Structures are given as structure tokens and as C-alpha cells.
Amino acid sequence: MNRPPVVSAEEWQTALQQQVAKEKALTRALDALAAKRRRLPMVEMGRGYVFEGPEGKASLPDLFDGRRQLVVYHFMLEPGTEDPCSGCSSLTDNVGNLAHLRARDTNFVLVSRAPLSELQPFKERMGWTVPWYSTYGGPDFNGDCGANPGFGLSVFLRDGDDVFRTYYTTSRGVDRLRLDFNLLDLTPYGRQETWEDSPAGWPQTPAYEWWRLHDEYDD
Predict the structure, then answer these.
(1) Is residue 147 packed enough to be buried (19+ CB in 10 Å), middle (13-18) or exposed (0-12)?
(2) 76: domain range?
(3) Does 103 reside within a domain?
(4) Tell me, what CATH number does 112's domain have?
């Protein structure tokens, strides 16, 4: 099995300190980017969006659940889909207890185009508790937010009944939400996908090939 070289404790400590110094510099750079993100302008959202959740119809302001900020994950699930997106599903697996977000006046929800009758059984199968809303039959909220036809992450700010969109990202931009990816990035073999820059002989498979719903893995 290919593996990292074995060195003395002193050599390992020196190499580790050099790596951590670079990581701390990157963390400070990310902090600076976050500061700029907090200063982005925003755009007002329309008032005509209609969502359906377990408790019935809801407006966009309703999704805040009385809070000031809202993070929406646009879950890629179209009407009649028989094979739900494993990437969106594994991201949702990584969403923890929302009490910590809500303590900072922020709510988190999933939104999909599929009807609620298709969302609810899958949510129960996966054991998720995060609120999940359908836009089926209503205005194209996901498309208007840029998540058309894929996935994405939108952030909103509410002032009374007025809702403003402040941020959007997709693709690698949502990796920060996934604890499994962030933990794998700390390991010697990483995510073990072919796009990664790893030493020759490291175990790798094509991206997405290993992704499954969590109840479809062998162990």
C-alpha cells in the first residue's frame, strides 16, 4: 500500500508546523473574504413566491420562521425523480442541529421543485429533520436564484416583509457545508478522487463515482 514516508518525530513536527503556518495564513485570507462578503450589496426579492411545507402554504418571509436571516439550499430534485441527487443528499446528511444557527437569528431550509408528496417520503427515509419546502406549481424560485436546473446556496436578509438576496454560490462553493469532505481533506489520502493533486499510487476514483445515499453503502 502506498503511504506517506515515515520520519522521526522531530522531522514530522517541523513539517507539521510549516503546513499549519500556511493553513493559518489561508484562514486569515478567508476571514478577509468573509469581511468583504458582509459588505456586499443586496437585491430585493419579489413577493410572489409560494412554497408548500408540512404545515401548508408559505411565503418567502415565512421561511425565515420569524428570524432575520435565511440560508436556503436549493436541493436538486425535479418532479418525478426516481434517483435523488446523492450529492445534495450527502450535503443534507451533514446539516446538524439548527439550534446553533437559530441562536444567531438565522434559519436554514431546503427548497426543491418536486412536489411535497415526493419530498416527504424521501425525507423520512433519510431521517432528516431540516425543513424542506416545495415550489411545485408556483413561480420558479430556484431558477430565479440561479440554481437552474442544478443546486446552489442562497442567503437572504429580512426587514419586516421585505426580503433581500445577499449571496449565492454553487459547485465547490458549497463544499464548506460538508463536514465529511472537510474531514477527508485532513487525511493522507484526501477525498480519493482523480481531480486531486496526490502522490502517484494514492487510491483514487473518478469524482462522484463513489457517492451513494447513506442507506446504500455496504456498511
Answers:
(1) buried
(2) 43-171
(3) yes
(4) 3.40.30.10
